[in-house]
Amino acid sequence: MMKPTMKVGLIAFIGLCVLFYQYHLSNVVRYDQLASFNGADSAAFISLEDDNGSRKITEDTIKNAVRSVQYIKGLSPDITELIIQELLSQLLIKSTHDNTLTPSSTKSSSLVDLKQVNNTLEPLYIITPTYRRSEQIPELTRMSHTLMLVDNIHWLVIEDSKIPTKQVTQLLERTGLKFEHLIAPMPDKYKLKKGAKPRGVSNRNRGLSWIRANATDGVFYFADDDNTYDIDLFKEIRRTKKVSLFPVGLCTSYGLSSPIIKNGKFIGFYDGWIAGRKFPVDMAGFAVSVKFLHQRPNAIMPYRAGFEEDGFLRSLTPFEPTEAEFFGDNCTRVLAWHTQTKKNNPSLPLNMKIHNNTNLVQLKQQIV
Predict the structure, then answer these.
(1) What was the pLDDT predicted at 91?
(2) What is the DSSP letter of 354?
(3) Are 304 and 311 contacting, i.e. CB atoms less than 8 angstroms apart?
(4) Which of 159, 236, 309, 325 is catalytic?
């Protein structure tokens, strides 16, 4: 059975093909008008000649049209690029059957370059611990819309639960992203412990186990679902060779957690809670190479509240803070924020005597 995202992609592709075909038959919307959206001087274009003269559809026009569908329908980057390539390919094929379409020489080279870029990108593995709560689906929805804009990404969503949440699975399937929906409940001995609890540790360690068993290259990053991420962050961390460190905003009373760089050199850490930690960083403030992890088979995150990041980075020994790669333009830009959505009270139950057989029954199933 075709996946929902593939259906949407196919519908978008067919729709765009019909659109261009209709433009070809009609003079209601002129090609030069469409081309003007991207400027008349675009180097890569498809030229059409008719009684009214030359008309142009730029390659950028096609890309923008498809990406507009991507944003509206939530297509993954891979599907979006496939539709673009297929549209351009169809137009090129048409030119071999008649002389209506004449692509410029830069067209084929741009397609080759696009494929080469996608093939050379190492995968990013995003490990996201989550748990059932009122904010879970909204948080994951927001995060998924960010990840849809990132190429060659594999999302490991790991629930602190004994069974996967159906709504989470449905959301992940709709994104079109490569994903794993895993479970890793916190051990009972930590749940029953008084005081601060090591939340997310079982989830992240489950993610590490999956990577060790299934990945050989690329970079992984612990990305909580209640944070906000700049797209540039993912471009930067993809370059990680060992361990990269970078600033995180809205952390502790300082409002910032970051390595300190002076005259281009690392001299320490700025964080509102040092507590004797060798690596006083936020969970969103570092990324690790998969190959580097494989070279440290004993690396693990400890069940110690407040010391999870420090314990994990220490377990990558031998590794010192001075060996880290400092991203975010040498730690001058904040690309991740600890935004933390306001916690909501549980939804009140429906009065089924009044609201049975109404739309509210279905809506309440989506709200915790």
Answers:
(1) 64
(2) H
(3) yes
(4) 309
Q: How far apart are CA 293 and CA 334, in angstroms?
A: 25
Model pLDDT for residues 106-161, shown as the tens digit of each residue: 434 444 444 444 557 899 999 999 999 999 999 999 999 999 999 999 999 999 99
Which tens digits make up the pLDDT trace of 305-363?
A: 999 999 999 999 999 999 999 999 999 999 999 998 888 888 899 899 999 988 888 88
> Residue 26 corresponds to which tokens in the numbers above?
């009609």
pLDDT at position 31? 38
> What is the separation, in whole angstroms, between the first and last Cα of the chain?
31
Q: Which of 80, 76, 234 is nearest to 145 (CA)?
A: 76
CB-based contacts of 282, cutoff 8 Å, min separation 6: 248, 251, 257, 271, 309, 338
CA distance 280 to 270: 8
Q: What is the DSSP string of 132-196?
A: -STTHHHHHHHHHHHHTTSSSEEEEEEESSSS--HHHHHHHHHH--EEEEEE-PPPHHHHSSSSS
- Would residue 173 show up in a list of annotated catalytic residues for this protein? no
- Binding-site positions for Mn(2+): 226
77: Cα separation from own chain's centroid: 10
What is the SS3 assignment for 198-262?
A: CCCHHHHHHHHHHHHHHCCCCEEEECCCCCEECHHHHHHHCCCCCEEECCEECCCCCCEEEEEEE
Distance CA 115, CA 29 (A): 32
| Residue numbering of the annotated binding site | 226
Question: What pLDDT, in 10s, does the model give residues 192-248?
Answer: 988 999 999 999 999 999 999 999 999 999 999 999 999 999 999 999 999 999 999
Helices (H), 2-105: 4-25, 31-35, 59-73, 77-97
Q: Beta partners for 249?
A: 256, 337
Domains of the chain: 4-119 (no CATH), 122-337 (3.90.550.10)
